[in-house]
Amino acid sequence: MVRQIELAKEQERAAAEAKKQRNAQMLAEVEVSNNIALDRKAEKLRQEREEDLKIVRYNAERIAKEEQAAAEERARKEEKELEIQRLRELQERAADRQGEIDALRAKRAFEEGERKARREEKEKAELARKNARELDLVRRKQFVEREVMLAQ
Asked: How far apart are CA 93 and CA 87, in angstroms?
């Protein structure tokens, strides 16, 4: 019986040792499993951070591109406005010059009209003097002819 008790104790010790080993093995497996889970969780967090950083970088790049495009658009508009202003100034200068040319033409036309009117007036006066001389000559001739007729 002592032998059986010792054998039972021995079996209990062996069972306890086996249980201990199983528990240790299970703890090791759980620890390995936990480490794997922690590694996966850390990797997932790292990937999420990388994705967040990518999103932040993408948004920053997009905003920078939008700002650059807006700046380029403003520069184009300013350049266009400057070109329009330059063209307006050229158009105003051309209009002023055309106005000056038109005023000069009008002045010349007026002066030409005055010269023509003076010339016509002078020609009329000359014609009137010529007619008066011819009339005077005709009267003298008639007078002389009358005198001659009366004398005869």
From this structure: 10
On whether the pTM is more than 0.85, the answer is no
Q: Which residues of 61-92 are buried (b: 16+ CB within 10 A; e: fewer)?
A: eeeeeeeeeeeeeeeeeeeeeeeeeeeeeeee
pLDDT tens-digit series, residues 82-135: 999 999 999 999 999 999 999 999 999 999 999 999 999 999 999 999 999 999
